[in-house]
Structures are given as structure tokens and as C-alpha cells.
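Progress note, sequence design subtask.
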């Protein structure tokens, strides 16, 4: 994996974390996730 891909992947991870963390509990519930799920979702390892 080249460095440009790693940087792009990390930027995507940070954006996902920021966007999901900005949602309140009701909005997350509507999506079927909890605050505790956010890191796994951002990493791409979330299993429902």
C-alpha cells in the first residue's frame, strides 16, 4: 500500500468519525447504530 493511499484512507476515517460523532443519540438510533459503534464503522470493521 502506498503512502498516498494510506493518507487518503486516514482522511476518510477522520471524516467519517467527525460526521458520525456530530449526530445525537436519536439520529444514530434512526441509523441503527450507537456511539460505541462509530469507531468500528469508521475503520470498516463494523458487523451488524
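Output:
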Amino acid at each position: 500500500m502506498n503512502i498516498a493511499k494510506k493518507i487518503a484512507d486516514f482522511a476518510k476515517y477522520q471524516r467519517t468519525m467527525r460526521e458520525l460523532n456530530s449526530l445525537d443519540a436519536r439520529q444514530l438510533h434512526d441509523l441503527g447504530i450507537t456511539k460505541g459503534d462509530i469507531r468500528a464503522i469508521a475503520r470498516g470493521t463494523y458487523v451488524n
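The mean pLDDT is 94. Work on this subtask will continue into the next period as scheduled.
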